[in-house]
Amino acid sequence: xxxxxxxxxxxxxxxxxxxxxxxxPPEVAPVMQASxxxxxxxxxxxxxxxxxKQASEYGDFFMLEPRQGGKVEFPTQVxxxxxxxxxxxxxxxxxxxxKKGIRVQDLRRDFRFGENDIFLVQxxxxxxxxxxxxxxxxxxxxxxxxxxxxxSLIDNDxxxxxxxxxxxxxxxxYVEMAIPFKSLRYTxxxxxxxxxxxxxxxxxxxxxxxxxxxxxxxxPYRMTYAxxxxxxxxxxxxxxxxxxxxxxxQVNRPVDNQGVSTQSTEWKAGGxxxxxxxxxxxxxxxxxxxxxxxxxxxxxxxxxxxxxFFPERRQFFLENNGVYAGADNEDIRPFFSRTIGLxxxxxxxxxxxxxxxxxxxDRNQERSLAGLYVHQRATPFQSAVNFGVAxxxxxxxxxxxxxxxxxxxxxxxDPENGRLQQSNTTVTVDGFIxxxxxxxxxxxxxxxxxNNSDSMGVAASFFAxxxxxxxxxxxxxxxxxxxxxPGMGFVFAQNVIYHNPGGYYxxxxxxxxxxxxxRRADPGFxxxxxxxxxxxxxQEFSVDIFPxxxxxxxxxxxxxxxxxxxxxxxxxxxxxxxxILEGQYEFVRHKFVYRTDQSKKLSLxxxxxxxxxxxxxxxxxxxxGRVAPSPYFALDFSVEHNDFRDFGENRAxxxxxxWTAGIRLAANPRLQLSGFYQYNSLTKxxxxxxxxxxxxxxxxxxxxxxxxxxxxxSPVNNQSLISKITYLKQF
Length: 731
Description:
Blueprint: H1 2-15, E1 31-33, E2 35-36, H2 50-54, E3 62-65, E4 76-82, E5 86-94, E6 118-124, E7 131-137, E8 143-149, E9 153-155, E10 163-169, E11 172-180, E12 194-202, E13 207-211, E14 227-230, E15 241-255, E16 264-276, E17 281-289, H3 315-318, E18 332-333, E19 354-363, E20 367-376, E21 385-396, E22 400-411, E23 422-436, E24 439-450, E25 455-466, E26 471-480, E27 490-491, E28 496-499, E29 502-505, E30 518-521, E31 524-531, E32 538-552, E33 557-569, E34 573-575, E35 578-580, E36 583-595, E37 602-613, E38 616-630, E39 633-647, E40 652-668, E41 671-680, E42 685-697, E43 700-711, E44 717-726, E45 729-730
Parallel strand pairs: 1-14, 2-4
Antiparallel strand pairs: 3-13, 4-5, 5-11, 6-7, 6-12, 7-8, 8-9, 10-11, 12-13, 12-14, 15-16, 15-44, 15-45, 16-17, 17-19, 18-27, 19-20, 20-21, 21-22, 22-23, 23-24, 24-25, 25-26, 26-28, 26-29, 28-31, 29-31, 30-32, 31-32, 32-33, 33-36, 34-35, 36-37, 37-38, 38-39, 39-40, 40-41, 41-42, 42-43, 43-44
């Protein structure tokens, strides 16, 4: 073993001689000047008005990828205008291949970042240096927007009211953005100064560039490096009220296990109100809340002994959820919004009606204050529930914070159905520390109390990560005791301690034959050490060693990982219905991953894992891909095949397959049809979801949604057809 480690370390000592150092933010920020438009700006993606021609041009972009500070092959020129209502960003993104050079996979909103050509602008209207809003567009005009906190927590589900139009040319493409001032939060000033960064991803050669210059270890969201945007003449902050009512008709047709079919029609109306009470505070109200248009969960085969985390997909809970994130991890969440309005937080949970909810967020340079209350209606299966969350976060130093959060869940009494009142409380303290740009530390300590039984439990988390330009090193520890039960949260397991130290070196070859196809290579290892929290006995110790982890020039991926594992369980558990008995297990698994350029018209990905597994063996193969001959048509497909042999208490031989296919059709970024089909051979269940959407006005939609779930060996079938219209009006 020592010889292997010496062999791995020797080439690293030579590679460390690379000059890939970070650099600090400038003492005096560079300045970008916004010009006031004298005439009318027509948003058409052409930038042919005289005001655009007269505005100052900014084109000194700094390369982040593939090599820090390299010569930019794809120049970008940006101009900035404003009038009484909007901030305008105009950009020309040069490409020698013109229309043939662009890469856009589809026309969805909030598209995947690394698969498309993108132009993006980040704004810090309050000059907090820790917060940004990002507005992003592809060459075909689909939008992506986000809120970013401390360049670490990115809320991609924030949607602002703004517009963008683009046009293609023989030498590149144009982007023209109109961002209403009333969609931004700022303070009145006679001489306003905003933070701003500009960036572009030229996906064909994966060239990522930014202005002003930012080290490669960070992102364009690191606003301590931002330029000062000056010259603005801002209107007084408006009342800024957004009203979004909806109307819905839903036809349900269930078939029970006796083959009896029924049909019912439901009519609903409700909506949301958003009031920006000040530049820093927002009040949200929701009535008779509905999430019919939200993306449905995708099924998974859980091959581990831990709970599966299914992400939140409902817009009301997604927006501004970053303020509740705490130490921001998926393993321990004292507050997880999927506990609200769903029968549970796991896959395909049934919706539970929400009568009303209110959310308040107030964020400034010194602190963040937030609160949430939702009343969930009673159903024949459970009592009415009151959900409450209170959050306070204090910023200190340049990039540090400490916060406290209280959650309270009260399940109301229901004497008619024999249900007593129950309540659950959690109190959490968490923090974020960045003593230097390359070092990030986060921590969380949370206590829960099941008030009826007076059962109290504790969970905790600690993370430290070091990210200079040429390596990553980190340590992660999670602790959850047997009695920690957050009534409004999620934990990956009880009575467990998990340690995950490790890291990798980042090598970017500059010369030689490897530099022609390797963008970066990240060899390294991570340790996975699980202990029983109550006894500190080791449950499992494994090491993920990946000597091959290569990103190609086109951002393809090639990896090989070997994982030796040692286990000693004093308890039994189930995996896919098979019981793993207590005892000792030793095995080694090998994983191979190959992914092609995901921005091409045809892209493929594959993953093969093989070796012994607990007391048997498991070969897992996942094959998937995308066919996108045009951004207006894209087809996704994947198959996951798991082959178990001599597995579990019953020494079972069986397979578990998961088939998935998806399609997306688009007339333009505002009129789209998407659908997917899944079949799970283990449960013999299938699911279909088809969704059509028309954005007939900014953030105003007409949805048509069809859902069906069925079981192969049973007549049980559930179908629903939903028509929903939402209209957003901003004052």
